[in-house]
Amino acid sequence: MNRVPFLSIIFMVISAFAGFLIPIVLCIYFRKKKRADIPPFFVGCFIFLLFSMILETLIHRVVFSSAVGTGIRNNVILYAIYGGLMAAVFEEFGRLFAFNIILKKYRDKNINALMYGAGHGGFEAAAVLGFTMISNLMLAMMINSGRIESLLGTLSGGTLTQLQTSISILTLSSPYIFLLGIVERICAVAIQISLSVLVWFSVKSNKSLFVTALLIHFIVDAITVFLAGIHMHAVIIEAALVIIATVLAVFAGKVYRKNMVNLM
Fold it and tell me: Residue 254's CB: how many other CB atoms inside 10 A?
């Protein structure tokens, strides 16, 4: 069996650290430099955990255990639409709940919208990048030590296929691929902060911005799921994310500045 390249392992370690470092740096920055309150950050973490990782995941389990779910999985367009829709609905209504109920007394400081987004997107970075890379590192160690063979012998069916796929990715991918996750998470956090700004001001002054956030989130996630589904090269997907994140950040910045003026 092929071994996982040493450089791939190094890059996985770097990416794992980055996944946990991103939320910490953002929290410190918005607190120390922008005087944001701390609670919105942790509320952002909680809302992502509850609405995305728990509630949305429960719906996925129900849907994909049915014949309808099988049909969705086998059609890349339907899967992209479904994935984009679920992510948009759960995360944006989670933000709406947070800003209307939990963070009501913190709405006097608009910088708290960015602090919330740092928590929401930062927790996602830790979960998606940090813990995924730790899992990859553990599997890589098993592969390189020769212990993976005994594990493969105990598995069968879909579980065996999934593990074999993971092994192939780790052993055959170019090492730089494991650094692209950092770019992806930085873009994702920028998008999450931008969407938080839109929903924040939809609660405070312009309700139509919530619909805008829903549509943007749906489109962004649907595009990325579709590109992954047609096996587009990772570099192209990340380039698309950079463009999307930049455009959305500029738009959210304009909304933020406009509403800051209107609220004065």
Answer: 11
CB 47 within 8 A of CB 95: yes
How much of the chain is helix, strand and coil, in % rounded to 5? 85, 0, 15
DSSP H/E element including 206: none
Nearest residue to 173 via CA among 2, 18, 14? 2
The phi and psi torsions of 198 (rounded to 5 degrees) equal -65, -45
Rounded to the nearest 5°, which phi and psi values hold at 151? -70, -45
pTM: 0.93
Q: What is the DSSP string of 106-173?
A: GTT-THHHHHHHHHHHHHHHIIIIIHHHHHHHHHHHHHHHTTHHHHHTT--HHHHHHHHHHHHHHHHS
Nearest CA to 189 out of 177, 197, 178 is that of 197
Tell me: the pLDDT tens digits for 194-251? 999 999 999 998 999 999 999 999 999 999 999 999 999 999 999 999 999 999 999 9
Measured CA to CA, the distance from residue 107 to residue 86 in angstroms comes to 27
C-alpha separations of 17 from 64, 99, 118, 182 in Å: 33, 30, 17, 10
Instruction: Give tens-digit pLDDT for 58-113.
Output: 999 999 999 999 999 999 999 999 999 999 999 999 999 999 999 999 999 999 99
**Residue with token string 């139509």:** 208
DSSP 38: S
Extents of the domains making up the chain: 6-262
